[in-house]
Design goal:
The complex is a heterodimer of chains A (about 450) and B (about 500). Chain A has about 450 residues and is an alpha/beta fold. Helices cover about 35% and strands about 20% of the residues of chain A. Chain A is built from 16 helices and 19 strands. In chain A, the strands form 4 sheets. In chain A, strands 4-3-5-2-6-7-1-8 form an 8-stranded parallel beta sheet. A 6-stranded parallel beta sheet of chain A has the order 16-15-17-18-12-19. A 3-stranded antiparallel beta sheet of chain A has the order 11-13-14. Chain B has about 500 residues and is of the alpha+beta class. Chain B folds into 2 domains: about 5-315, no CATH class; about 345-450, Elongation Factor Tu (Ef-tu), domain 3 (Beta Barrel). Helix content of chain B is about 40%, strand content about 15%. Chain B has a 6-stranded antiparallel beta sheet with strand order 12-13-14-11-8-15. The longest helix of chain B has about 35 residues, at about 245-280. In chain B, about 40% of the residues are buried. Classes of the chains: A alpha/beta (about 450), B alpha+beta (about 500). At the A-B interface, α6, α7 and α11 of A face α11 of B.
C-alpha cells in the first residue's frame, strides 16, 4: 500500500464517521489505534460542526492534551474562534499563546459565543447554570476518561463524538473495591464502556491505518493488542530508515542492540536472569546507556516527513517504564551519563505521545511474579506503540518461564465484559515477536 | 511492597522476629471494643455455624447453630447475635449529642481477618431485608442487626475507618514478618512472628501455628479435618435426637457441639486480645482522633437514619450514588496517606526514598526577606536546608513541613555538592502580619526539618448531578427504589 492509498483509506473512514455524525443519533464512538490520526479527526469534526453553525465543546483529559489539541486546531483553522476554558491559575503555554484566534478565559460567560470551546473534563465538571449547554461535544481520549467523570459533564451536551484508543491503559482508581463490578454504570470503568453498555445502538467506527507506527511495528502491535480490529501502517518498509553518523568501534552489546533496532525496528536487549527490585540498577543503567549511545553515535532517520535525513534529538527519544520509582531511577542514571532532555516516564504519562525511538524497560523484567498490574495489556501496548522508527526492549532473561508460571488468574465477574486481548496472551504474542530480535547483553 | 517494607521483611526473616514498620499506631482502638469471631459452615455462601463475641475478655459469649443447613435456625441465631451486638451499639447511642457534635464515642467491632469482615457484611446482607410480619417472619431485631452489620461492612471500604477492623490487617500494617502476605492473614502465625513465646523464633512459632490441632483456624471457615471427623458426626447426632424427640439426648448432643466449637474458637479469642494488647502498647498517631471523629460522625448519622425508620441499604448503588461514593473514598484514601506520613517518620522515610520528601538541617534563614516583585511588598522569608537525601524536586515545587502544615515552602534552587544537597526554600503563610517572621513561626538555623510534596489541602466536594438528572450516557434517571421481599432473594439462590 502506498502512502496515497493509505491516505485515501483514512479519509474514507473519516468521511463515514462525519456522515454518521450528521445523522442525528445521540453519539458516535471512534476507536483509534496508536497514531491513526485521532487529532486529525477531532480537528475536522470540530471545524465541520462550526461550519454548520453548531456550537461545540471539546473535552480533553489533561491540560497537556487540551493545549496540544488547541495548537492543532488553531494552526489548521486560524480564522476559527477557539475558546480555552481554564483554571484561574493556568498560564497559557507558548503553543497556545501564539495563536491570535484562541481566547483563554476562566469563566464560561466570556466564551459562550465561541463556536468551539476546549477544556479538561475536570474544568467542564465545574460549570453550573442552565445556559451552559451545547448541542455537540467531542470527547477526546474517551477510553482514558473514567465513567464518573463523564457523569459529571454529560448534562452539558445533547450529542457527542467519543474518540480514543481502546488498546491503551484503562482508567484506574486508588480505591480497591468490587462493589460496582457488573453494574452498567460502574464508576471505575471507562466512559466508552459505560456509554456503550447503556446505549448499545451507538455506532462504533475504527480508523484503519497508523501514521505513527512503521511497517515493522504495525503488524506486531495490531496482532498482539488489537486482535479483532486490526490496522496497518500507512508507510511501507522503504519509507522509514534509521542509520548512524558514526561507526561503532569494537561494538558492544549496546551497539549490537541499537544496530538490530535500526535494521529491523525492534531489539530485545536481554540481561542475565535474576530476581531484582523494581528499580533494578543494571536494567536501569542499560536503558540510560542505550539512550546515551544512540545520541553519541548520531542516529539519523529518513521518513516521509522530510526529503533529507533528520538527526534523532534527545527529546525524540523516550524511555518507558511501569513504575514512578523506575522513572526516577532512569532519570538519575541519565543525569550521571550527562544526557539531558531524553523523556523517561511511566506508561501512564507516555500515553498519547510520539517519539522516533523508544526504549522500554519490560514490565516483567526481573520479577518473581506476574501481577495483574504488570500483565496489563494496555501498559505494554502504550510502551510498544510510541515510536516512529524503532523500539528497544530491555529485559532480563526468564520472562517466558515467568509467564508460563503465572497464567491469568483474574476472576471473571458476572456482567463484566471479558476484555480482549487478555494481558497474558498479549504479553506472549509481543514477546514471541521481539524474541526474534534478541541481543544478549553479555 | 515498598523498599523499606522489603528490607524489614528480610530483616525479620534473618532475625526471626517481626520488625516494626511504623512508630505509631495509625488506628483508633476503643477502650471496650466488641470482639467478634464468626465461624461458617464450609461450602455455603453465608451459613453461620457459631460465633464468639463479647466486650469482656473473661466472659466470651458463644452462640451455636446446631442445624446450620436449616435456614430458619440461621435467623434464630441472628436474633441471638442481635441481642449482643445491638445491646453493645445502644450503649454508644444514649443521650442525644450536643448540637453540631457527634456522639462522644462510637462502637468498634474487632474481627480476626478480612474473611470475617466479609462474612459480617454478608450476614448483614442476608438479614437486612427480612420481614417482621407475614410469611417467614423474623424477630424485629434481625433486620435491624442486618442494617447495622451492612453499615459496618460498608464502612470498611473507607480507608482509615476503624469501626470494623480485621486485626490481621491492623497488625500487618504495623509489623513486617518474614513470611508472605498470604501467610500474614493467619492470625496465629502473624502473632507468632510479632510476639513469639519464650525460647522460640518467629519462624518456629509461625510453623507451630500451622498445626490446626494446636491453633485452629481463626475462621470464618473451619479446619476441614475438624469438619469431617468431629462436626459432621455431632450435627448428625443433633439431627437424630431432634427427629426422635428425645429432649435429654438433644441437650447432651447440643452441649457436645458447643464444647467442640468452643475448642475451635477459644484459642482465637485469646489471640484476639493479645493482638489488642500489642496494638495498644503503641503510641497513638496524632491524626487518629480526627479520623475517629469522622467515624463518630458516620455512626451518629447512621443512628439518626435508623431512628427515622430509614430503609435498608439498597443492594446496588445507582449511577450517581456510586460516583459520589467513589469520590469520597478516593478523597479519604489520599487524606490518610498524607496524615500517616505526617504522623510517622518511618512512613515519611518511604517518601524520602522515592524523592517525594527530604529531611535535613536548616543552615541559614532570612526571616525578614521581602518579595517586592508584585504590586504589594510581601513577607517571604527564605531558608536553606542541607540534606543527605536525594532531592529530585524541581524549582517551583510547593512543599510542606509536617511541623507547620499551614506554611507553604516553594523550592527556589537546588544545589548538589559532594554528597550533600542544599535546597533554598521560600516560605509563605502561617507567620502573621508582622514585618519580620516572629520567632517560632518558621524554622531557625540548626532545626531538623522535613519537607515533602505531600499535601492535604481542602478540596471542594466534586459536583454530581442529582439522582433524577442521571444523564442518558449512564442509563437515564433510575426508577425509585422501593424495598420489596425480592430484595432478600439472591441471584444464585
Amino acid at each position: 500500500m502506498s502512502i496515497a492509498e493509505a491516505a485515501a483509506r483514512a479519509n474514507a473512514a473519516i468521511e463515514a464517521i462525519l456522515a454518521d455524525l450528521a445523522k442525528a443519533g445521540q453519539g458516535v464512538v471512534v476507536d483509534s489505534p496508536p497514531g491513526a490520526g485521532k487529532s486529525t479527526l477531532v480537528v475536522r469534526a470540530a471545524a465541520e460542526l462550526a461550519d454548520g453553525g453548531e456550537r461545540c465543546m471539546i473535552v480533553g483529559q489533561t491540560n497537556e492534551q487540551v493545549d496540544d489539541l488547541i495548537d492543532r486546531l488553531a494552526s489548521e483553522h486560524p480564522d476559527l474562534a477557539v475558546g480555552r476554558l481554564s483554571a484561574g491559575t493556568y498560564t497559557p503555554t507558548p503553543r497556545v499563546a501564539r495563536h491570535a484566534g484562541v481566547t483563554v478565559r476562566s469563566s464560561i460567560a466570556d466564551l459562550i459565543d465561541h463556536p468551539v470551546v476546549v477544556a479538561t473534563a475536570a474544568k467542564w465538571a465545574m460549570l453550573t447554570g442552565p445556559d451552559a449547554r451545547w448541542p455537540w461535544a467531542i470527547i477526546d481520549e474517551a477510553y482514558q476518561m473514567r465513567s464518573d467523570s463523564l457523569l459529571r459533564v454529560a448534562r452539558l451536551f445533547d450529542r457527542a463524538l467519543f474518540v480514543g484508543d481502546p488498546g491503551q491503559l484503562d482508567p484506574f482508581s486508588t480505591v480497591e473495591t468490587e462493589r460496582w463490578l457488573g453494574l452498567s454504570w460502574d464508576p471505575m470503568s471507562s466512559a466508552v464502556a459505560v456509554l456503550l453498555t447503556n446505549n448499545p445502538d451507538i455506532p462504533v467506527h475504527t480508523l484503519p491505518v497508523s501514521w505513527r507506527l512503521p511497517a515493522s511495528a504495525a503488524p506486531a502491535v495490531s496482532a498482539a493488542f488489537y486482535p479483532f480490529t486490526g490496522f496497518t501502517s500507512a508507510t511501507g518498509e522503504e519509507d522509514r530508515r534509521m542509520g548512524w553518523n558514526t561507526r561503532a568501534f569494537a561494538p558492544t552489546g549496546v551497539d549490537r542492540a541499537l544496530q538490530t533496532a535500526a535494521d529491523t525496528g525492534w531489539a530485545l536487549y536481554e540481561l542475565g536472569h535474576r530476581h531484582a527490585l523494581p528499580t533494578d540498577a543494571e536494567a536501569v543503567r542499560a536503558c540510560a546507556e542505550l539512550a546515551a549511545r544512540l545520541l553519541e553515535r548520531g542516529a539519523v532517520t529518513e521518513s516521509e516527513r522530510s526529503p533529507d535525513p533528520l538527526p534523532v534529538t534527545p527529546e525524540r527519544i523516550a524511555i518507558g517504564v511501569a513504575h514512578r520509582a523506575q522513572a526516577a531511577a532512569v532519570n538519575r542514571a541519565l543525569r550521571e551519563l550527562g544526557v539531558r532532555d531524553v523523556v523517561a516516564d511511566t506508561a501512564n504519562r507516555l500515553q498519547g505521545r510520539e517519539f522516533d525511538v523508544t526504549i522500554m524497560l519490560h514490565p516483567l523484567s526481573g520479577r518473581r511474579d506476574a501481577t495483574a498490574f504488570h500483565l496489563e495489556a494496555g501498559r505494554l501496548c502504550v510502551l510498544a506503540s510510541r515510536h516512529r522508527h524503532a523500539c528497544v526492549v530491555v529485559a532480563r532473561a526468564g520472562i517466558p518461564e515467568l509467564l508460563d508460571a503465572h497464567p491469568s488468574v483474574e476472576p471473571v465477574h458476572l456482567g463484566v465484559p471479558v476484555k480482549f486481548p487478555d494481558g497474558w496472551a498479549a504479553h506472549q504474542s509481543f514477546l514471541a515477536h521481539v524474541s526474534r530480535h534478541r541481543v544478549s547483553a553479555a | 511492597m515498598t523498599l523499606l517494607t522489603a528490607l524489614a521483611r528480610v530483616a525479620a526473616a534473618e532475625t526471626g522476629r517481626a520488625q516494626p514498620t511504623k512508630t505509631r499506631r495509625h488506628l483508633h482502638l476503643s477502650a471496650r471494643p466488641l470482639v467478634l469471631i464468626p465461624l461458617q459452615l464450609a461450602g455455603e455462601a453465608c451459613a453461620p455455624l457459631a460465633v464468639m463475641a463479647g466486650e469482656d475478655r473473661a466472659k466470651p459469649l458463644q452462640l451455636t447453630v446446631y442445624e446450620p443447613r436449616d435456614r430458619a435456625r440461621r435467623f434464630e441465631f441472628a436474633a441471638g447475635l442481635a441481642e449482643t451486638v445491638l445491646g453493645y451499639i445502644d450503649g454508644y447511642a444514649g443521650a442525644d449529642p450536643a448540637d453540631g457534635e457527634p456522639y462522644p464515642d462510637a462502637p468498634q467491632l474487632l474481627v480476626p481477618n478480612a474473611g470475617a469482615a466479609a462474612f459480617t457484611r454478608m450476614l448483614g446482607r442476608s438479614t437486612r431485608f427480612r420481614q417482621v410480619t407475614g410469611e417467614y417472619a423474623v424477630p424485629a431485631a434481625v433486620p435491624l442487626l442486618g442494617r447495622w452489620l451492612s453499615y459496618f461492612g460498608e464502612r470498611t471500604e473507607v480507608t482509615g475507618s476503624a469501626l470494623l477492623t480485621p486485626l490481621t490487617a491492623a497488625l500487618a500494617d504495623h509489623w513486617a514478618t518474614g513470611q508472605s502476605a498470604m501467610e500474614d492473614a493467619n492470625l496465629a502465625a502473624l502473632l507468632g512472628w510479632i510476639d513469639p513465646p519464650d525460647g522460640m523464633t518467629g519462624l518456629e512459632a509461625a510453623r507451630a501455628a500451622e498445626d490446626p490441632v494446636r491453633c485452629p483456624p481463626a475462621g470464618p471457615v473451619t479446619d476441614p479435618s475438624f469438619d469431617n471427623e468431629v462436626l459432621d458426626h455431632l450435627v448428625r447426632v443433633v439431627r437424630n435426637a431432634t427427629a426422635a424427640g428425645d429432649e435429654v439426648a438433644l441437650a447432651r448432643a447440643q452441649a457436645a457441639m458447643d464444647a467442640a466449637l468452643r475448642s475451635q474458637l477459644e484459642p482465637t479469642w485469646e489471640l484476639m486480645w493479645r493482638a489488642v494488647d500489642l496494638l495498644r502498647a503503641l503510641p497513638e498517631a496524632a491524626s487518629v482522633p480526627e479520623r475517629w471523629k469522622s467515624d463518630r460522625w458516620s455512626f451518629t448519622n447512621q443512628v439518626g437514619w435508623l431512628r427515622e425508620g430509614g430503609a435498608p441499604q439498597p443492594r446496588r448503588d445507582g449511577a450517581v450514588a456510586a460516583a459520589r461514593r467513589l469520590a469520597r473514598l478516593e478523597r479519604e484514601q489520599q487524606r490518610l496517606a498524607v496524615q500517616r506520613a505526617y504522623d510517622d517518620p518511618l512512613v515519611m522515610a518511604e517518601y524520602r526514598l522515592t524523592g517525594e520528601a527530604f529531611a535535613g538541617t536548616v543552615t541559614a534563614a532570612d526571616p525578614a526577606r521581602l518579595d517586592t516583585s508584585g504590586k504589594r511588598t510581601t513577607l517571604r522569608p527564605v531558608i536553606v536546608v542541607e540534606t543527605a537525601d536525594e532531592v529530585v524536586l524541581e524549582p517551583g515545587a510547593i512543599l510542606r513541613s509536617p511541623d507547620r502544615p499551614a506554611q507553604d515552602a516553594r523550592v527556589m534552587t537546588v544545589t548538589v555538592t559532594e554528597r550533600r544537597t542544599e535546597v533554598t526554600l521560600e516560605l509563605k503563610g502561617g507567620m502573621g502580619r508582622a514585618k519580620v517572621a516572629p520567632p517560632g513561626s518558621m524554622p531557625e538555623p540548626g532545626d531538623e526539618v522535613t519537607f515533602t510534596t505531600l499535601r492535604d489541602d481542602f478540596q471542594p466536594a466534586a459536583a454530581f448531578p442529582e439522582r433524577e438528572d442521571t444523564p442518558w450516557t449512564h442509563g437515564g434517571p433510575p426508577q425509585e427504589y422501593v424495598p420489596t421481599d425480592d430484595d432478600a432473594r439472591e441471584d444464585w439462590s
